[in-house]
Amino acid sequence: MLTTAMTGSGSGIGAGIRQQLESDGHRVIGVDLKNAEIEADLSGPEGRERAIEEILAACDGRLDRLVTCAGLPGSAKPRSRVTSVNYFGAVELLDGLLPALERGEQPAAVSIVSNSAQIAPLDEHPLVAALLDHDETLASRIADEHDVGPIAYMGSKHALGRAIRRRVRKWGDARVRLNGVCPGPIRTPLLEADMSDPMTRHAIESIDIPIGRWGEPADIAKLVAFLLGPDAGWIHGSLFYIDGGNDAEIRPDRF
């Protein structure tokens, strides 16, 4: 039986992924604020370190799969909490659990990013630079000073996508595959939270999905399960948009 650790397993996309993996025969070690094998707050270093330690204890230091799915919506406050969970809560668990994954069976990891990561021109944004420099203090200050939810959310996801790409050599040398999945609007509690905020609600309502519907957690779960499996054995360092065609419509000439 394959052992998979995953953050954000208690609701939304994470719960959908967990259900899919368990139906495929995985043993899942879930991490979330509640309703999980490991209850931890990934918004701070202590919670992240404890999550890593408890995962390693639960899997005896040998892990086959990892999914980092925990995330906060742009409507969450303080904005620094958004960047801490969405970025540091992902990359620190990826890095901290890589040695355990190296001991696993055909090991692989997937991080949940967002199709909004490339919508705004954030390549040179100071928030993104601070995140990629792994300076949580500076990133938190910038996020709170801007106090703009979409910037904190999109910036954290943009940086996460780049962080995945930047790890391609180290993880490849370790023979552990790492990829990212970039969902569009999915019917989850996170989306409901953003719909309750006037600023993010307007942005979401303006999204036009060419395929004609919002996504469901099961849509994402099936792609994640494939990327973790042996049929995706030569896929590494890639970001997959799964958004009903939204990104393609916005950026038809960039891919």
Explain the overall architecture.
The chain is 49% helix and 13% strand. Helix 3 packs antiparallel against helix 5 (136-146) and helix 4 crosses helix 6 (149-166). It has one domain: Rossmann fold. It is built from 11 helices and 7 strands. The radius of gyration is 17 Å and the shape is globular. A 7-stranded parallel sheet has the order 3-2-1-4-5-6-7, with helices on both faces.
Quote the CATH topology: Rossmann fold
Secondary-structure-derived class: alpha/beta
The CATH top-level class label = Alpha Beta
Mind telling me which CATH architecture this is?
3-Layer(aba) Sandwich
Q: What's the β-strand tally?
A: 7
Q: Largest sheet at a glance?
A: 7 strands, parallel
CATH evolutionary superfamily: NAD(P)-binding Rossmann-like Domain
Oligomeric state of this protein: single chain
What is the domain total for the residues? 1
Topology:
Elements: E1 3-7, H1 12-23, E2 27-32, E3 38-39, H2 45-59, E4 65-68, H3 79-102, E5 108-112, H4 126-132, H5 136-146, H6 149-166, H7 168-173, E6 177-183, H8 189-195, H9 198-205, H10 217-228, E7 239-242, H11 246-250
Parallel strand pairs: 1-2, 1-4, 2-3, 4-5, 5-6, 6-7
Helix pairs in contact: 1-10, 2-3, 3-5, 3-6, 4-5, 4-6
